[in-house]
Structures
1.
Amino acid sequence: MIIATVKPSLVLTRDGSHSLRNNITGEHYHSIFGAYTESMHVFVAAGLQLQASATATLRLLEVGVGTGLNLVLAARYALQADCSINYTGLEPYPIDIEILKDLNYNEFIGADLFNNYVTAYPQLLTGAAWQQANFEANVLQKPLLEFESEQCFDLIFYDAFSPVSQVGMWEEASIAKVASLLAPGGVLVTYCIRGYIRRQFLALGLQAEKLPGPPGKREMMRITKPKHV
Ligand SMILES: C[S@@+](CC[C@H](N)C(=O)[O-])C[C@H]1O[C@@H](n2cnc3c(N)ncnc32)[C@H](O)[C@@H]1O
């Protein structure tokens, strides 16, 4: 169980980028072997690079916005690759802006873009979009199971806490929910790979790939919804 009122602690991961530790569960928001490296590997290289050209405007959903690292990396990708991305993020327990200001992602992503995100963060949490040229982000303070959407998504970053601390995020209701949010041909990427989770996606008619993981992790998982189900 996550207790939102307890402040997470800042930690330095092995590639020099920051992450946060939840002080109730002891769980980190990213890999301690490198937060930036993990996000680039799992979400950008295995997800965004594959799907960016799938549709004119990529519909991207992130489950677990946290620090916004993946959100800002997606914005940077859209700006650099000149593609259009519409990002929706779910975060029922948003971090405090003072914690966000302490993160050193400006050194990894680019100071202008990250500082711009930090400035926009309070409005983003009240429902205003953050727009950067062809990238638009909206964040909803909702848990996955309460999220209703008229649109499906071409790409999902499934970045929930691990099954050790948040088992419900990897059980049938959550997996069925997130699978239902994928568009035909859509892709979900996650750092977490366990046999019982992979089998739940397979049972729903989706395809599951094991890919090499980021530093400190042998494998990661990529799920694809067939174009014709
Ligand atoms: C592993 S961290 C995410 C890291 C994040 N993507 C980042 O780059 O900082 C997991 C996040 O999921 C959020 N979370 C917890 N329960 C959730 C739920 N039911 N639906 C969506 N997000 C949830 C947590 O508050 C936390 O921010």
2.
Amino acid sequence: MAPAHGADNGEVDVDFRLRARRDTVPLLPGTPSEVWRYDATLVDGPANTLSSINNSYPGPLIRLSRGQRVRATLENRLPEDTTVHWHGLHVPPDVDGQPRLPIKPGEDMAVTFDVRDRAGLYWYHPHPHGPDGGRVGFQSYAGLAGPLVIEDDIERGLALPGGEQELILILQDRSFAGDNALRYMDGMGAMMARMRGFFGDRVLVNGRPPRTRDVATRPYRLRILNGSNARIYKLAWSDGRPVTVIGTDGGLLAKPQRLAYVTLAPAQRVDVWLDLSGAQVGERLRLISDAYQTGMMGGMGAMMGRSALPAGARFDLLGLRVTDRVRDGRPLPPDLDSTPVLPAVTSDTPIRRFELGMRMMRGFFINGRQFEGATVADDEVVRLGQTEIWEFVNDTMMPHPMHVHGLQFAVVERRRMNDRRGWSGLDSGLVDAGLLDTVLVLPGERVRIALTFTDFEGLYLYHCHNMEHEDSGMMRYYRVRA
Ligand SMILES: [Cu+2]
């Protein structure tokens, strides 16, 4: 009998088994690659709950509805401890996949939770951290990550493009040896990679090299997840048309926003509307990641001499080729989801400060501390039901995508405090609207977020989602206390 966590383990609306295991899948032409991956079996629930992605390593797309009670039985068939973290979901601490509750090799764990979150694209990935450091970077890199979509009535009412017109894109960078074996941090570059985070020498979309899709003259919905360990994407259209953003990490915006490009940090998601109604058959368009400046980091990468795709490089992510004329005049809804979601902030709202710092040869710190298991300092305890402002101050030469577990928050202020250390070209693509669970804090910036701790007492994590930073200790627990 597997240990059970979460809500009463009786009747559920959805019941599935999620298995983490080794496998061999074709990623590049030629020899298949050894990966670690999730696969899943539906025990009970709607038939469209699980669907596979691209016949590659990404975990199945899990499609849930707000209000459902879900049971997932997690099976560890790997040679080491793992966990499954439901990234972005408002679930109880013991369901959150935290490192203090590892699933041992050969063992199972059942988690039960209610789907309380708004419609949106979330995701799931491992979160193990042992005495020798974290294994999030390695396990995610080996293939353990998958998308999770929540639907609700508000979103259904908007009749957004679905089916073939809904494209889910998981962006990740990888490096390969000559025999197509995945290469993570090794050799000379390992120490540098732990400081900068891992940068692969090519990008994969849904576990395969970028490709061109045939599309029709109609609107499309692109739901994009940055599942990379450390890379920041600067999403833009090849013809310079604006990017129309309809949603972020925590679901739909109140109104669409048009931006020249979108900055997507590790773990973040963006929901994009693309209207091809006016296109001609034969027309082509590419989704790209455009170039930006990374200060000293670029130099550090070049110094190591093997940066086929350095941070800030420009490359293609997806090609679109219009092959069909279709009449589908569906307009972009001017109002999306205007349900008030932002925590109420007043001049009395307490501010909690987190200084992001670096010490040579020792890595990155939050308020001078690194991960110490479930240890929580006095200034890391918050009150149930309270709204706070957390301010992240980045005094390092690297960006840090800061993730808070167990909730969605709102960005209330972003301010440049000091020197940007040579980073430029990402600012105007930051989408600070709507709800987020991960916010990019660029070098020299102070970012304030508003968050409310509701429903669940206990331990949650907050950390940098550059997975190599997180694994080397840029992570802490906080406690919600009644
Ligand atoms: Cu970081």
